[in-house]
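Sample pair:
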Amino acid sequence: MIAWGLASSGHPILVHLIPTRRCNLSCAYCNEYDDFSKPVPLEEMYRRIDHLAELGAAIMTQSGGEPLLHPQLDQIIARVRSHGALAGMITNGYLLTADRIQQLNRAGLDHLQISIDNSQPDEISKKSMKVLDQKLVLLAEHAEFQVNINSVLGSGVKNPEDALAVARRALALGFTSTVGVLHDGNGQLKPLNTREQAIFDQVMELGKRSYSRFNQFQHNIARGRENQWRCRSGARYLYVCEDGLVHWCSQQRGYPGTPLAQYTKEDLRREYRTEKSCAPRCTVSCVQQVSMLDNWRNPQTLQPRMAGPQQSDSLIQLSSSPRGK
């Protein structure tokens, strides 16, 4: 994937697909869910996956909402793998059982990520180590795919030390570990305090054997420093919402706001060269990781187009979510 990404800048590296906006939890910090939406029909998911494959997408990750609520998630994952793309998933982990993990193995899942917010559930988040530890044990026993556990620091986290406990437990079970810095309501950075920064450094050191060692931009985010980089969202990274619209990312819904079915390689080329004013203070780590492949080439000389007719004329800012998106 990396070699192909370096050799060619004309295809998406990572796509986040939303098969359902519904979630079985209601974490107070998150507005990327509801409790009533129906899952995207399977045939429509197939059409979206097939079109992304035509665009050359290398990784397609199911997110949400809670993707495990989609009754045909296994077929969706298998469809991704049928195109030779890598299949990932971001989940809260609540619905995992031994049988469900085996089904994901058979479907061909390559990578799964769970964000764990604290040691004990509270009024902000139910994604706690107390609740999820047995799910992690099941993953360690049965999963044939890579598992990454993401801990979080920043606004809303009562006990920063919990991030260190989560990371240590993840590594003890043989998983990789990353840490995310929660952003503000506009998806922009909010520096950690001195205590949180010290814990951040410890967690990053623990995770040095995983891809977290490449996250120099997160060290800047933790200290409130802007990053100078070329955001390639809309080109190398796509966020496809439950309505089938392409957005820069989960925090910048509205641009370009184009139906995926109408998204072309010309759209990829345009967004690749489009400068994003939100980039210097962005905290969306997956977009920054993908964009590292192209920071050294092709300056961005275009300004954003107006949002598509399906969205409002101005950029819609969403509030923060530490799901690792």
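The first strand starts at residue 14 and ends at 17.
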